[in-house]
Amino acid sequence: MPKSLPLALEMLSSDHRKVEDLFEQFEEMKEEEDASRIVIAQRICSELTIHAQVEEDLFYPWLRENMDDTELVAEAAVEHATAKQLIAEIMPVGEPDEEYDAKVKVLSEYIKHHVKEEENEIFPDVASEEEELDELGQEMFARKAELMAEMGMEDEMPARRERSRSDREARGS
Ligand SMILES: [Fe+2]
Ligand SMILES: [Fe+2]
Questions:
Q1: Which one of 41, 57, 85, 119 has the largest count of C-beta atoms within 10 Å of its C-beta?
Q2: Which ligand neighbours the alpha carbon of 123 most closely?
Q3: Residue 6 lies inside a defined structural domain of this protein
């Protein structure tokens, strides 16, 4: 049984799972009303924006100081920049059409790849720095709360409830 991750890595992993879940919900809702899909896509974009900001403000700088080989960090930072371009195209609310779905799909695949690199290549390399990463995790939580407040977001997933409501509507019950 692997022991639990230091706080910073635990927090980032749980963000990753949350966004994966939202992408899945978006995918499942393809047949349903567009309004709910837009809600999910918007939520994905804001979750990712905050997550990337916390990583760039605190986690990546820490990695640059603590990893021997920072090539992966440089690569991850470039991937953030590319993801942000896609997010900027998805963010404005419009009619969700084939192109909109395609952009969300490409973002989903892109993020999947990025998360795999973070969790499989970067995390194991630093996971033994438990004390520092617990401390860093506290700072990251505080920064995340700050950013969420700035964006007027609450730490919950309205998307899940939205979905079950529209599922019921779709089934006519
Ligand atoms: Fe990242
Ligand atoms: Fe991440």
A1: 41
A2: 2
A3: no
Range of the domain at 131: 15-171
- Look at the chain and report how many structural domains it folds into: 1
In the chain, % of residues over pLDDT 70: 86
Whether pLDDT at 85 is above 80: yes
Using CB atoms within 10 A of its CB, is residue 134 exposed (0-12), middle (13-18) or buried (19+)? middle
**How remote is the CA of residue 3 from the centroid of ligand 1, in Å?**
23
pTM of the model: 0.86
Assigned domain for 99 exists: yes
Q: In this structure, which ligand is nearest to the CA of 16?
A: 2
Rounded to the nearest 10 degrees, the angle between the axes of helix 7-28 and helix 158-171 is 20
In a domain, 2, yes or no: no
